[in-house]
Amino acid sequence: KVKGESDWKEHLKKCLQAQCGEVLIQSVQEDGSMDGIDAKLIAEAAENCTVPLIAMGGIGSVSDISNAIEAGAHAIAAGSFFVFKKPHRAVLISYPSYNELESIVGKS
């Protein structure tokens, strides 16, 4: 815990007590990196969450989406994954194929 940083689990608890309808959890360190998700963070949040959990930060592949869902996320926010494409991270709007998405979502 960094000085001045609140405990995110306590904040989550307060949000749930206030009857929030869903939770968006972001791995700030991974956001935009496309280097993979923080599965531990997602799993810890899912363990403590009683409403739908949306995870974001680090999605760089379809397998990252699958890993986030397996870790407990109900939905994924993945901006960079859809906009920036390698090797030069050019701005090219791109989406996984229907079959790729169906193979992930069909698991639930």
Uncertain spans, ≥5 residues at pLDDT below 50? none
If strands are numbered along the chain, what order do they take across the biggest sheet? 1-2-3
Major sheet characteristics: 3 strands, parallel
Q: First CA to last CA: what distance?
A: 34 Å
Helical stretch tally: 5
Would you kindly provide a written description of the structure presented here, covering whatever features stand out?
This protein is of the alpha/beta class and 108 residues long. The chain is built from five helices and five strands, in the order αβαβαβαββα. The strands form two sheets. The chain has a three-stranded parallel beta sheet, with helices on one face. Strands 4-5 form a two-stranded antiparallel ribbon. The radius of gyration is 15 Å and the shape is globular. The mean pLDDT is 82.
Task: Explain briefly what this protein structure is.
It contains five helices and five strands. It is of the alpha/beta class. The chain is globular and about 45 Å long.
List the helices and strands and how they pair.
Layout: H1 8-17, E1 23-26, H2 39-47, E2 53-56, H3 62-71, E3 75-77, H4 79-83, E4 84-85, E5 90-91, H5 98-105
